[in-house]
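Sample 3 of the quickstart, ligand pyridoxal-5'-phosphate:
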Amino acid sequence: MPELEPEPPDRLGVRSLPGARPNVPPPAPSDHPPTSDAHRLFLREPSRTPIRIVRGEGAELIDEQGRRYLDAAAGAAVACLGHGRRDVAKVLARQAERLAFAHPSKFTTREAEQLAEKLVDRAPAGLDRVLFTSGGSEATETAIKLARQVQLARGQGSRTKVITRRTSYHGATLGALAISGQAGRRQPFAPMLLTQPMIAPTSCYRCPFGKEPDSCDVPCASDLETAVLDVGPENVAAFIAEPIVGSSAPGRHPPERYWPRIREICDRYGVLFIADEVMSGNGRSGRWWAMQHTNIAPDLLTTAKGLSAGYSPLGAVLAREEHYRALRDLPGAFRHGHTFAGNPLSCAVGDHVIDVIEREGLLPRVAELGERLKARLQETIGDHPHIGTIRGRGLLMGVEFVADRATRAPFPAEADVRTLFAHACLDQGVYVYQGGGNVDGRRGDHALLAPPFVLTDAQVERLAAGMAAALDRIAPELARAAEAAA
Ligand SMILES: Cc1ncc(COP(=O)(O)O)c(C=O)c1O
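Result:
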């Protein structure tokens, strides 16, 4: 009988665990070099040590030392109902016991159907069908592919382009990044990205056309027509835009007359309009959808983030009945899908989130809190020499930093004012979502504020005071960076 081959060394280092296989020596140090961290996570930004959060309560996050941070961005417009809710935990536990997963290729669930019904009931007119995803980038990918297949079903096979706006952000996956106008995020992957046409952003604070918001004829909307004609209408599948911008230029939104003009151009040239409400949706603007502040409806609407309030990953694309019917009769129907899309656990949470928002009257509260927060920020930091503008709608707001208020010149990107400010805020026990690139995809520092809808009036005060104190603390660095910009 041949001798048994000795087992090969275990690359995962299981043998080094106490009691795992006592006779086998631990792996050679070269196999498992010591890390400078206390863990094995592949951090997104290894140069910065993240804070280990152990618990959440309402609008606060709590770290290992018991230090509390006001979560003024709800992560990134996610935790809309606040943290640590027993009611949501109960929904999750009940659903996990009953059914956590059934593959969407062959099965549907009552939870997915019920949430779809509730979303359609509250959606802009004509959006009657729901495809679930597990997040925002997946929703963007799904919407792009859906637009393409709808155009194919219409016999418009040459329509492959998706027009987007400069300085926008629609997701991290390669398809979503290709239609995101943030130069900084695109740079390492640029040779891998499909080229898509980009039009002007809706930046009233720094209008690329040199117009005033109260009197302009929205040339930023007409820019879409220019792009469609440049590319050729027969080549354009869709146009994507955020009704209220999130991470790439928080709180930015155009004058009311922008959207009817966009709708008109899309209709004239057979282009599908995708409203990206990944951040602005689910009540964050004070209405269910930011598009409901306008009188037009998109053809497709994407969402995620607050849809499940951060308790379980969930996203969705809302589509028109006619698109569903057009695709339904095609061989293979809609050729797209993600494994966890519409899992009953996430859908049960999403359903509960809608109930809570309505039962607790959170939509009017968001509108009221948004006004209150904006007013308090104006009072406390609005006149600061390096605050350019404070803008937004409901609880989707942004504070933009400038080197010079008179010229609106941004700080040099290398000064990294966004990080400087966000860290100074953390020292004050306030978490804001830092970002940049609102000017040209790279320059332009800002902080996104998108707190939970359960923020208290006292927390509004704490947030404004914390930001003011953070600005005071970094005053010397801001002065130096402004000098370098001059
Ligand atoms: C407007 C918008 N679209 C899409 C995305 C991508 O969502 P996710 O990070 O869930 O993939 C984001 C994320 O910040 C977003 O703000």
